[in-house]
Amino acid sequence: MKKAAIIMMVLSGICFLPACFPQIYHISQSPETWTVARKKCRSKYTDLATIETKQDVLKIRTLTKTLSYVWIGLHADTESWRWSLENQNYFNAQEAGFRMWDDGEPSGSEYYKICVKLQNNGKWTVQLCETPAPLFCYNEGTSSFIYVNLNKTWKDAQSYCREHYTDLASVRNQSENEQLKNMLNSASAWIGLYRNSWKWSDGSAYLLDNWAPKNPSSLIKNTCAGSFSGKWYNVDCNDYWNYVCYSEF
Questions:
Q1: What range(s) does the C-type lectin domain occupy (predicted)?
Q2: Interatomic CA distance for residues 38 and 26, integer angstroms
Q3: Residue 137's beta-bridge partner residues?
């Protein structure tokens, strides 16, 4: 009867999702790795906790105030690559997905944050983003690429390109890749492709940013998110922590 009444409220516009269908959280004080915790949550409830609003953050904090870290459902998305230049008009339907991976690449799946360099053989390799290297910029005004022989981290390279030109170089096709290869005057150089994504175990969109200061750290391998005192920290998924499951209304 209660569920039917809530459905009528949604249909009439009196309330909106997710407010009408709040998650019910369940605390387990039997420490597990993140993967085992997810398996147990899915077996008994719905999944590890998804946190979508500030109200959800407060609920989790209240429920876990006597505990240290607890696993939540957030984990590194090691399959989502993106270009620094986010102007979608720059790419046609196929170009944003152009890749020239070297053999064995992309590696680095144990890191949530990884960046891409073009090598002097024309193939792409991944590297920790904090590694200094030369870079390729793109100048929208002249539709040209610029090789910059200064050693910078990927983030500093991005800032340099955005300050002096348009952005780090996006490589849309074989012709552009060959052009950059011929300009390269070092072993490798940064391009604009990177991975820096998180996703929820249940597939919900990652919308809320609730990280503690200096988190997430890009140097922690096999990383998942734990909640402590209302903030999120990325820690090794193989650590043992208590965990929070949720069930649907």
A1: 25-138, 137-246
A2: 13
A3: 146, 168
Closest among 204, 188, 102 to 147, alpha carbons compared:
188
Domain boundary among 112, 140, 168: 140
Q: How far apart are CA 105 and CA 64, in angstroms?
A: 40
Q: Same domain for 208 and 153? A: yes
Shared-domain flag, residues 135 and 163: no
This prediction has a pTM of: 0.70
DSSP letter at 155 equals H
- CB-based contact 117:127 (threshold 8 Å): yes
Q: Going residue by residue through the chain, which has 249 residues, state the pLDDT in tens, using 9 for 90 and above.
A: 334 433 333 344 444 444 455 689 999 999 999 999 999 999 999 999 999 999 999 999 999 989 989 999 999 887 789 999 988 789 987 898 999 999 999 987 777 789 999 999 999 999 999 999 999 999 999 999 999 999 999 999 999 999 999 999 999 999 999 999 999 999 999 999 998 888 899 998 888 999 999 999 877 888 899 999 999 999 999 999 999 999 986
Q: How many domains does the chain have?
A: 2
